[in-house]
C-alpha cells in the first residue's frame, strides 16, 4: 500500500482522526479492484459472464449458512474483514529487488563484541518472516560461538 505522502512516511498526529479510515478506504478500493480485475487470471470462473465483474455472491458472510441468492454488487464486500496497517509497529521493511546487498551480516556491526540479529540482517532468506528471524538467530549464534555450523537455506545469501 503506498503512503499517502511518499516523502513523509511519519504518521500524522493523533488529532488527525480520519487517517486510519482514509487508509482503510484505500485498502477496500484496492481489494475491490483486485477482485474485479487482477485476480481474473487465477480465479478463472469467478466473474460474471455478462458484465465480467467479480461474482460478489461468492463472498462468504460471517454467520450466513446458506448460499446467497439474488443479485449482489460490490457492496457485498462490506461483509468482509479488511484493515490498513498504518500503525508504526505494523509497518514493515520490504524485500525489494536488489536490496539484499545493503543488509548487514551478524558480525558487521562495526563494533567488537556487538552482534546483530533480527529478520532484517543478511540471513539468507532476507524477507520479513519468522523463518528469516530464526535463521538470523542462527547466524548470530554462529558469529558468536561457531554453532550451528550449517544453516539450511543460507546458500541463498548474497
Ligand atoms: C503486521 C505484521 C504481520 C506479520 N505477519 C507475519 C506472518 O504471518 N508470518 C511470518 O512468518 N512473519 C510475519 N511477520 C514478520 C515477523 O513478525 C517478523 O519477521 C519477526 O517477528 C521478526 O523477529 P525479530 O526477532 O527479528 O524481531 P521482533 O519480533 O521485532 O523483535 C525485536 C524485539 O526487540 C525489541 N527491542 C527493540 N529495541 C529494543 C531496545 N533498545 N531494547 C530492548 N528491546 C528492544 C522490540 O520491542 C521487539 O520485541 C509480520 C510482521 C508484521 C509487523
Summed up:
With 158 residues, this protein is mainly α.
Describe this structure in words.
This protein folds into 2 domains: 19-89, no CATH class; 100-158, no CATH class. It is elongated, with a radius of gyration of 22 Å. The protein is an all-alpha fold and 158 residues long. It has helices at residues 19-38, 130-145. The site of flavin-adenine dinucleotide has 9 residues, from helix 2.
In DSSP terms, counting alpha (H) and pi (I) runs of 4 or more, how many helices? 2
Overall number of domains: 2
Largest sheet: none
Q: Stretches where pLDDT falls below 50 for ≥5 residues?
A: none
- Shape descriptor reads elongated
Q: Fraction of residues in helices? A: 10-25%
SS elements, strand count: 0
Hetero groups in this structure are: flavin-adenine dinucleotide
How much β-strand is present in the residues? under 5%
Order of helices and strands: HH
Rg over alpha carbons: 22 Å
Amino acid at each position: 500500500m503506498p503512503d499517502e505522502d511518499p516523502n513523509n512516511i511519519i504518521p500524522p498526529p493523533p488529532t488527525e482522526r480520519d487517517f486510519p479510515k482514509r487508509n482503510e478506504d484505500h485498502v477496500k478500493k484496492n481489494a475491490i479492484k483486485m477482485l474485479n480485475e487482477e485476480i481474473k487470471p487465477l480465479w478463472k470462473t469467478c466473474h460474471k459472464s455478462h458484465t465480467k465483474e467479480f461474482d460478489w455472491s461468492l463472498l462468504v458472510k460471517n454467520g450466513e449458512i446458506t448460499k446467497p441468492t439474488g443479485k449482489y454488487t460490490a457492496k457485498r464486500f462490506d461483509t468482509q474483514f479488511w484493515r490498513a496497517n498504518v500503525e508504526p509497529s505494523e509497518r514493515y521493511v520490504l524485500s525489494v529487488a536488489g536490496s539484499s546487498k545493503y543488509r548487514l551480516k551478524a558480525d558487521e556491526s562495526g563494533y567488537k563484541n556487538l552482534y546483530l540479529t533480527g529478520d532484517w540482517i543478511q540471513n539468507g532468506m532476507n524477507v520479513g518472516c519468522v523463518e528469516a528471524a530464526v535463521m538470523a538467530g542462527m547466524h548470530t549464534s554462529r558469529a558468536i560461538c561457531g554453532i550451528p555450523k550449517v544453516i539450511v537455506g543460507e546458500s541463498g545469501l548474497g
